[in-house]
Amino acid sequence: MNSYEHSVSLDLSRCTGCTTCLKHCPTEAIRIVDGHARINTGRCIDCGICIKICQNKAKKATYSRLDKVLKTTKYKIALPAPTLYGQFEDLEDVDYVLQGLKDIGFDDVFEVSKAAELVSAYTRTYLKTVGIPKPVINSACPVVLRLISLRYPTLKEHIMQILPPMEIAAKLALERAMKEHPELKREDICVCFISPCPGKVSYVRNGFGDYQSEVDEVLSISDVYFSLINVMRRGKEPENLSQSGMIGISWATTGGEASALFNDKYLAADGIENVNRVLEQLDNGNIAGLEFVELNACPGGCVGGAMVVENPFVAKARLQTLRRYLPVSQTLLSESERDYIPEDYCFDELPTYMPIQRLSTNFGESLRMMAVIQKLADALPGIDCGACGAPNCRAFAEDVVCGRAAEDGCVILRNQQLETLLKTKEEESKQ
Amino acid sequence: MNEAVRFHYLVDGEDFSSAGQASVQVKKNLRRLGIPPEVIRKISIAMYEGEINMVIHADGGEAEVLVYEDRIVMILTDRGPGIADVEKAMQEGYSTAPDNVRSLGFGAGMGLPNMKRYTDDMKIESVVGEGTTITMTVLLA
Hints:
Shape of chain B: globular
Helix content of chain B: 25-40%
Mean pLDDT of chain A: 92
Number of domains of chain B: 1
Radius of gyration of chain B: 14 Å
Structural class of chain B: alpha+beta
Strand order of the largest sheet of chain A: 6-5-8-9
Helix content of chain A: 25-40%
Strand content of chain A: 5-15%
Structural class of chain A: alpha/beta
Distance between the termini of chain A: 62 Å
Largest sheet of chain A: 4 strands, parallel
CATH class of chain B: Alpha Beta
Low-confidence stretches of chain B: none
Largest sheet of chain B: 5 strands, antiparallel
Number of helices of chain B: 5
CATH architecture of the largest domain in chain A: 3-Layer(aba) Sandwich
Low-confidence stretches of chain A: none
Oligomer: heterodimer
Number of domains of chain A: 3
């Protein structure tokens, strides 16, 4: 897993080494070393909180640049996430956005919300599968998937084995392109997902389990937004392009995926802290009677991602207006289609558990280290100031014992030692 | 190393919404020690049930978790009303939990039976009017 590619980068010239990201990282993956933030890649889950929280804009999401992508001679397909629609003020129709994407240079557009409606329909079938562990946990948020594979091994089997809408959109878009343009080969096509979050960038780069993504480039909603507003609504009526309904668009916000199942035995939680709490409780087996659990790492759902422009609550309100007069779903499956989930819409290999928190591979050694950590933690001031570069005193104690930090890194302890030293010197000189 | 690593938790009886916190902490620490996930799951369920019991019936108490190389021992101590009939309390479905916690889904009478099920050994010492101490052991293979 050392080769895992993340999607958060640091601009050293902007990072002041303040403790803001350090304190907010949900997996304690950040340390301040030599005056700059450093990410432990084994622990990072690409949630993007450090990007959102950095006041100096030193943390950046890495994604493919739109101008670069548009320059390729390949057949370019845009896969807009439904969150994109919530970025525009007074948007009357999704078609304006889709037309805009074509106008800025994409050869085709395939809505991820359309694929989401398909996933919703198949999830209803999936829930009826005999013998699957309940509740089923959604597979759409890549950050949650990574969190489960790093921390909650016993819940792995609960993850729904249907691919996320982005992947199904990519497959369907590719099929359409090759059918309409038989001269195209796979390598002549560039599938571009327009993403609200860096989590998807990592997902596309690394795959999930043994599954490799069909998406070629991941673009940022904020980047695409600024190009779109230049071309949208120049008096021109757009083509009828949109093929998604209420359900597809609702996937952008928390509860959208779950409520599309027409089954009230669900739970929907958002924000990494809440997600962790739910996972803990599920892990203990004490949430009874649930069929489906929808977890989204960002507050409010995908609208709260780190690569969006608009405040998530504003985006949510806009999406509510936008979907108001749309049909419930525009993707309807016949009864026989509903019975069977196509195999290529599923993944079967779940990633292996990575015990990132383990102190040592030898249990006896772990015990010995834990005893030393406890002793050191008791001696530390316990105010969790972060000045040593670790998020709290316990983490610092662990860093010291694991050889990642020096014991004299604690400013308060050093201060106390200095004071005692001064006192003894004073007393010595009095005598 | 024969000495155990010891974790100590105070279980607050005043605030019902914080019940279950010790179990979460234990889980975190056991992960650091590299205990297999299946074993952690058993321990955290047994701990959780014990913790909830202390909050519901005894206004809280203390939990001590000792990790040895070959076993993990959990000792839960409270100064609550004690258990009048231990045998009856061990029956599945028997509960003396009040209605206000039943509405939250507790009080199904599965606490003690689950604690026994998920551990290799469980000992209950209880004196009516004085309190209860439950010692649970999970063996590490």
